[in-house]
């Protein structure tokens, strides 16, 4: 598990570290690590380090200080360094160090001509004390940059704690952060680029947010043992699709088939189509006739009429873990009384996209998606998986996980149905619902990347890529 801490917690940890380290030591560690990364980006993009030109955009705080000190280290490697000073003042010690090392210092007015010739630009405009988007002077200079940008700690203009962007911001090729990952790094991947963490000796426990490592998913993925049979691994019930939307049934059931060696049962109006596509599925017409299961995936394509409502009420009343997706979330939002059938101790996972979230909560998720997911989890006493480019999974006890995607190819019709089937199979295997949801999101995005391979893909291809995703994750264990 990777831990992620809010800027408030980072500042507390920095305060503790400051107390036990010599003056300037933390910044020295940070800026030395930063200089190594800037040199690496220079080498990657130009083939050399010495003789190349780096421009530092230096704001008035310690973020600018890091950039200026890194510039001083780069001078020792023969890099031509020019600092463009933004704001009314500059980090004094950093500025002095850069000047001593032979760096050039220019005003914002003179910045454009240096930016035009830069091989790499360093964003030391603002760090964890940032609020709001780039101010006009910084925004104008950033808009002129054509070279790769290395962001110091985080891309300026992006909110450090939510990853939200509501105006001009830096789009970095690489972000070099210090001590620990902050929410922006998981929530705004397309602004951060590659994120590199430099250890400066901060001590932090109890992360505010988590991200599953491949190793976590590998270790927790259910695997049949010698004593197992088709029932003992957990039977998944899929209540999805309709005569109008048989595809949702095929995709949801197919994802469950591909994600588990155990049995998959299907109940609904698309039984014939499901049987034809997935002969291993035991398909019936109604949930009451489905037979015993250990968890339900309900919702995709079932419609939001009275029949759909009865299906949702039925599965919620079985005392079993339920993944309620798509139409099931709308039904729960419109007719919350269906939840009366639920024993509050049985796990429920809701998987809304932004529109479904609005129906459930009466408001949009807004820029702080982690808080939004946590609030919905509390309200519904359920794990909430909030879909989007970045997926957030929150539990009623406050745990929150983030899944950072590998590209955006999953923005394709039916891909949510595939996620439901995956998640249903993990719930049937008895996994903790929060972990199950975070694992499903992880495997879903990896399967998406495998299916797409940098070209458009489809949800059917995504289903077929699930075993390859699981195989590549589990290969870590061998
Ligand atoms: N405190 C520490 O121990 C360490 C801090 N480090 C660096 O220090 C940074 C934090 O430095 P500071 O707290 O001095 O603050 P920043 O450098 O993040 O911000 C400087 C000032 O800019 C102003 N500001 C806020 N939003 C702005 C905006 N949108 N446009 C322009 N100006 C804005 C604020 O008044 C803020 O105080 C970290 O991100 C990291 O880069 C590192 O040196 C590692 C050690
Ligand atoms: N831009 C994006 N980048 C990465 N993943 C995305 C993006 N847009 C959507 N997704 C993912 O694709 C899935 C879409 O699900 P959903 O909105 O239910 O669509 P559908 O109903 O068509 O299946 C979710 O898992 C979501 O997280
Ligand atoms: K920055």
UniProtKB/TrEMBL annotation:
Read off the InterPro entries from this record: CARKD, Nnr, Ribokinase-like, YjeF_N_dom, YjeF_N_dom_sf
| Binding-site residues, AMP | 387-391, 416
Q: Give the record's keywords alphabetically.
A: ATP-binding, Isomerase, Lyase, Metal-binding, Multifunctional enzyme, NAD, NADP, Nucleotide-binding, Potassium
Q: Which Pfam families match?
A: Carb_kinase (PF01256), YjeF_N (PF03853)
Q: Does the keyword NADP apply?
A: yes
Ranges where the YjeF C-terminal domain occurs = 213-473
> Per its database record, what is this protein's job?
Bifunctional enzyme that catalyzes the epimerization of the S- and R-forms of NAD(P)HX and the dehydration of the S-form of NAD(P)HX at the expense of ADP, which is converted to AMP. This allows the repair of both epimers of NAD(P)HX, a damaged form of NAD(P)H that is a result of enzymatic or heat-dependent hydration.
> What's the name of the protein?
Bifunctional NAD(P)H-hydrate repair enzyme
């Amino acid at each position: 598990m990777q831990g992620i801490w809010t800027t408030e917690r980072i500042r507390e940890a920095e305060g503790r570290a400051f107390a036990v380290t010599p003056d300037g030591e933390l910044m020295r560690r940070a800026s030395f690590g930063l200089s190594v990364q800037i040199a690496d980006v220079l080498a990657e993009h130009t083939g050399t380090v010495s003789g190349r030109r780096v421009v530092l955009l230096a704001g008035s705080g310690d973020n600018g200080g890091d950039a200026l000190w890194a510039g001083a280290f780069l001078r020792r490697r023969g890099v031509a360094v020019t600092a463009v000073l933004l704001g009314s003042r500059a980090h004094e010690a950093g500025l002095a160090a850069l000047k001593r090392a032979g760096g050039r210092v220019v005003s914002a007015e003179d910045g454009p001509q240096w930016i035009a010739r830069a091989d790499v630009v360093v964003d030391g405009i603002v760090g964890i004390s940032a609020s709001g988007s780039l101010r006009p002077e910084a925004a104008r200079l950033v808009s002129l940059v054509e070279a790769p940008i290395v962001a110091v700690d985080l891309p300026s203009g992006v909110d450090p704690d939510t990853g939200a962007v509501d105006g001009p911001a830096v789009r970095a090729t690489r972000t070099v952060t210090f001590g620990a990952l902050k929410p922006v790094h998981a929530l705004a991947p397309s602004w951060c680029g590659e994120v590199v963490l430099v250890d400066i000796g901060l001590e932090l426990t109890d992360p505010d947010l988590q991200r599953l490592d491949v190793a976590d998913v590998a270790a927790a993925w259910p695997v049949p043992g010698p004593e197992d049979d088709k029932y003992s691994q957990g039977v998944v019930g899929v209540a999805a699709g309709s005569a109008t939307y048989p595809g949702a049934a095929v995709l949801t059931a197919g994802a469950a088939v591909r994600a588990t060696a155990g049995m998959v049962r299907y109940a609904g109006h698309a039984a014939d189509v499901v049987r034809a596509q997935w002969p291993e599925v035991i398909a019936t017409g109604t949930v009451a006739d489905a037979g015993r299961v250990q968890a339900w995936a309900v919702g995709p394509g079932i419609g939001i009429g009275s029949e759909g409502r009865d299906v949702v009420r039925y599965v919620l009343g079985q005392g079993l873990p339920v993944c309620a997706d798509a139409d099931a979330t709308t039904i729960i939002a419109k007719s919350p009384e269906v939840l009366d059938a639920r024993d509050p101790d049985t796990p429920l996972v809701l998987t809304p996209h932004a529109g479904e979230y609005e129906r459930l909560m009466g408001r949009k998720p807004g820029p702080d998606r982690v808080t939004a997911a946590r609030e919905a989890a509390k309200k519904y006493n359920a794990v909430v998986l909030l879909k989007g480019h970045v997926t957030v999974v929150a539990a009623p006890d406050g745990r929150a996980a983030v899944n950072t995607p590998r590209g955006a190819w999953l923005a394709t019709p039916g891909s949510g149905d595939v996620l439901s089937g995956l998640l249903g199979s993990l719930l049937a295997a008895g996994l903790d619902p929060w972990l199950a949801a975070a694992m499903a999101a992880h495997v879903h995005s990896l399967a998406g990347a495998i299916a797409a391979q940098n070209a458009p893909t489809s949800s059917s291809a995504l289903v077929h890529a699930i075993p390859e995703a699981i195989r590549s994750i589990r290969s870590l264990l061998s």
